[in-house]
Amino acid sequence: MFFKGLDHIEMMLNLPQTTPALQIPYFIPYLILPIGFGLISLRVIQDLYKQVKECGLKDTAFGIIFCLALASPLLFGFEMDALAWLFGYFAIFLVIGVPIAIALGLSGLATIIGAKTLPIDYVAQLAFTSIDSFPIMAIPFFIAAGVFMGAGGLSKRLLALADELLGSLYGGMHWQLLQPVCSLPPSAVLVLPPLRQLGH
């Protein structure tokens, strides 16, 4: 995916286009593909190195043999129906304890490679276009804003202001904070500790 992302960047440099709103070159947003997949690859290598140190060479060799056996149908080009690839690999990944999100992604990738229904280049393009949405991009930025507010003390000051404005009303502070905590449970992490400090 890293190299497919680089191919996408090269295409964007050869055929320059700009975004309609900001008038920036399209290759800048597409940099997320090689940078993101490059960072993911580095993290995987780091985790694998740590795992090898913990497990030892014998268990590592067994793991490598198991992974090659698991990938052998793809490596040797067995012909199967796309549904067999998808549900077969998904079931295997669930049985061996792979998290569901990763099992979905890996079984989908195995289906694309094994069934040869889509070109693998399409996956890199699909990876970008699936996140090329303002509502989806707002989620991590909203979480980051909450973390910055909590670390900088802004959330404590906002809660102190809300306590000054609504604290004298019976249940005023609680009713004002109940709606965001119920609709966005991650905000409870930021709101509840300062509320306990204020005695609520």
- Profile the largest sheet: none
The number of distinct helices, counting runs of at least 4 residues, comes to 11
Instruction: Please give the alpha-carbon distance between the first and last residues.
Output: 50 Å
Number of strands: 0
Q: In terms of structural class, how would the helical and strand content be classed?
A: mainly alpha
**Overall pLDDT level:** 77
Shape: extended
Poorly predicted spans: none
Our count of domains comes out at: 3
- Oligomer classification: single chain
Tell me about this structure.
The chain has 200 residues and is mainly alpha-helical. It has three domains: 1-55, no CATH class; 62-132, no CATH class; 139-197, no CATH class. 78% of the residues lie in helices and 0% in strands. The protein contains eleven helices and no strands. The chain has helices spanning 2-14, 27-30, 32-55, 57-75, 82-95, 100-115, 121-131, 134-152, 154-166, 172-183, 186-197. The mean pLDDT is 77.
